[in-house]
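User: F-box domain-containing protein. Structure?
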Amino acid sequence: MSRLDKDVLFLIFEELKDDSKSLFSCLMVNRLWCETVIPILWRNPWFHDINYYSKTYLFAIIASYLSDDTKKFLMKQLPSVSHQSLLFDYVSFCRSINVNIMKSIISVGSSSASNRLFLQQEFYNLFMKKCSELKYLDMRSIEHQIFNFPEAKLRFESLYELKCDTSIDSSYFYGLAHISQYIQKIIVVNNAKTKANFGVVKLIEVQKNLKYFELIDEFYTYSSSIYYVPDKKKAANSIDPILLALEKKADIINHLKIYLVYIGQTLHKVLPKLYKLKTLIVNDFRYTNEEQLRMCVYHDLEILKIDYCNLKTASIIIENSGGHLKKILLGTYEPDHIDDFYDDSLTFIRKIYQYCPSIEYLPLAFSPSKEHFEEFEKLLNVCQNLKSLSLIMCDMEEQVTEKNLSENGEELLKIIIKSAPTNLREIRFLYDFKFSLGTFEEFLVKWRGRPSLSILTYKPIFREENYVKLINKYKNNGVIKDFRCESFINVVKYGLSCEYYMLPHLL
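Assistant: Predicted structure:
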């Protein structure tokens, strides 16, 4: 029975593997829980939401595994190193190395540059000996040829995910390419100031099971404080060989994310070749011509995310998909001409219900015309899997008045109540429409009996006392699950953030 209990606990804790706070709380319940949680926490000890720069105990734990001679040497300078035995063989559970965090932990233990380099070498040597296999490697800012350790081939042979940057010396990539040829996920941060890194090219070329590839300019990384915008020619020279190497993996690549300051012609040539894509995430499609777009045919496409595009571009990609699209995430809508928005938005809605019967996450921007409302209702009737809907109205033809806004809002809610699929759980209301208190309450009354609804908007009217009271009333009776009134930017960001909770399940 106790064995069964431990197995069940393990399955439960596995579901919490991305929730560090809950897992750390579970440690304190009893010995059984602690024994079950520790291997999960230490599988990737660099992942958790803690400040590694101030955690001396992590340094002490890892340093305690070092040889007695090494510890004697270190104890003269580092009093945190001890001979005390540990409750668990922590390092043996580890399946990951993060070079930057390892450096930060080592810096806690020593301020001497020579000592830090020595400790890095000793720590890597320890992980090579203690870890049965290494699945995740973040080698950004690496300073040691860890792939030359005797045990490296066995440890990195089954490497699953790699994070790296193009400023790393090519020799490190050649070393890894020799022993790791079944990496499934590669994330490359591109330093546009450097020349093409042919070590990265070689690493891509030898892969036999590469499913996910991400190429992102350093300019876009959250950790970067660099606001350097690269010269177009230099940028192209640094990334083109990587893109061309990626083209050779067209028969196995399923998921692609590209965030580049300069989208060059090479990417336009490579994208149509990657015919097996299930996920396509690109920051900018504004300068791709229609002929190039028509060549991008992805029959297996399930997720499409573009930060900057126009509705015509999105419609062409959707038309060339195979009917499997589940998530469409679009950032800034930029019509080529204001006069085209009416027709482009109408076409976009039609393409959705014609080619995306399985859609779950969808942004819609359209004019508040009778024709658009009719097509919107058709979409709701066809797309029965729809879970999340982001709504934007843009009246390009006349001066928007309070009366127009109220009429738009009333018609919108009427259609949603009449035709929304039962799977719909979330609506994001943007502009140009508003809801009177009476209209909004009527909508909530009619929503009763359906699954609880999450609503996100930036409209300041919802912060007024009478609206707050109404919202709380329908929260209490279960009609509203969650209501958030935030800044416009946060509402848009929230829409784009869907990527982060869907990507971990792609592979």
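Residues 1-41 form one domain. Residues 113-130 form the longest helix (18 residues).
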